[in-house]
Specification:
The chain has 297 residues and is of the alpha+beta class. It folds into three domains: 60 residues, RNA-binding S4 domain (Structural Genomics Hypothetical 15.5 Kd Protein In mrcA-pckA Intergenic Region, Chain A), CATH 3.10.290.10; 69 residues, Pseudouridine synthase I, catalytic domain, N-terminal subdomain (Alpha-Beta Plaits, 2-Layer Sandwich); 136 residues, Pseudouridine synthase (2-Layer Sandwich), CATH 3.30.2350.10. It has eight helices and 17 strands. Strands 7, 8, 9, 10, 11, 12, 13, 14, 15, 16 and 17 form an eleven-stranded mixed β-sheet that branches. The protein has a four-stranded antiparallel β-sheet with strand order 1-6-3-4. A two-stranded antiparallel ribbon has the order 2-5. The chain is elongated, with a radius of gyration of 22 Å.
Length: 297
């Protein structure tokens, strides 16, 4: 046991890529004091991570901003998750992310992420394939999540995301019913040191946010809403419905009540965007989650 505790204290070496390169060449250049054979051994023993994902291919293409980690021990963790893939082509892969799965790694969780699973899926056929993050969903939110297969698409979309992405729609379930069947919520969002997002005064650091909502159906206890984003801020829908006095069900962070479905009542069901490279309009949709339907019977 003492030996294991000693192992945990050893830290990863971390490097940030500043220009395009192949992995082996980058390691030779930056891992000072290590021989070529030692670096080959690190790769073989799966001790090299690129953006928290094991990579062992010598010629793996690195791009500016990639984070390389050299771990002190072999990484043996593997994942087997059947990805709910909605769409895939040479440039793009779109999944229906399950609730409870992180989009990307956090300080506390590096292994179980949509980003990691998508990369593992792509590398089954091509060890040099990789996914690039286009946007994120909260861990507790399910629904449409897109990844690019090429840095060109990432760069083009990120330069003018709101211009190319023309529709982002969500299903939201609350307890009770809002006084109005539809409405618009506007506020300036702030974030506390504890990562809580809240509406407040217009300040230099505040971010303008706008949410449109419309009642769809309900029963004596719960109501379903169609929610469309005009801005895409962190926790925006969750904060805005709390501001209305009707938090999303299952939202422990923003005072939502627990229910028998044991998850957040928020699902990203539609996304429409114009591919800035092909100029093609692409639209993706997913059905209402089964758990939501059960609550609304």
């Amino acid at each position: 046991m003492k030996q294991n505790r000693g192992r945990l204290k050893q830290k990863n070496e971390e490097y940030q890529v500043k220009e395009t390169s192949e992995l082996f060449d980058y390691l030779i250049e930056n891992l000072k004091g290590r021989s070529r054979n030692n670096i080959k051994s690190l790769l073989k023993r799966k001790q090299i991570l690129v953006n928290d994902i094991v990579v062992s291919q010598y010629n793996f293409k690195l791009v500016k901003g990639d984070v390389i980690k050299v771990t002190p021990f072999r990484n043996t963790i593997t994942h087997k998750l059947k990805l709910p893939i909605i769409y895939e082509d040479d440039m793009l892969i779109v999944i229906n992310k399950p609730a409870g799965l992180l989009s990307i790694a956090s300080d506390k969780e590096k292994e179980s992420t949509a980003y990691r699973y998508v990369n593992e899926y792509l590398r089954q056929d091509n060890p040099n394939a990789r996914a690039f993050v286009l946007h994120r969903l909260d861990k507790e939110t399910s629904g449409i999540l897109m990844f690019s297969k090429t840095p060109n698409l990432v760069n083009a979309l990120h330069k003018n995301w709101n211009h190319f992405v023309t529709k982002r729609a969500y299903f939201a379930v609350i307890k009770g019913k809002t006084p109005q069947n539809s409405g618009v919520i506007k506020s300036f969002l702030h974030q506390s040191k504890t990562q809580q997002v809240y509406s407040g005064a217009k300040t230099k650091d505040a971010k303008y946010s706008e949410t449109h909502y419309e009642f769809l159906r309900g029963n004596n206890e719960f109501s379903l809403y169609d929610v469309k984003l005009q801005t895409g801020r962190k926790n925006q829908i969750r904060v805005h419905f709390r501001d209305l006095g009707f938090p999303i069900i299952g939202d422990e962070k923003y005072n939502g009540e627990k229910t028998k479905i044991k998850r957040l009542g928020l699902h990203a069901y539609e996304l429409v965007f114009k591919n800035p490279i092909t100029k093609k309009i692409m639209a993706f949709k997913t059905p209402l989650p089964r758990e939501f339907s059960q609550l609304l019977k």
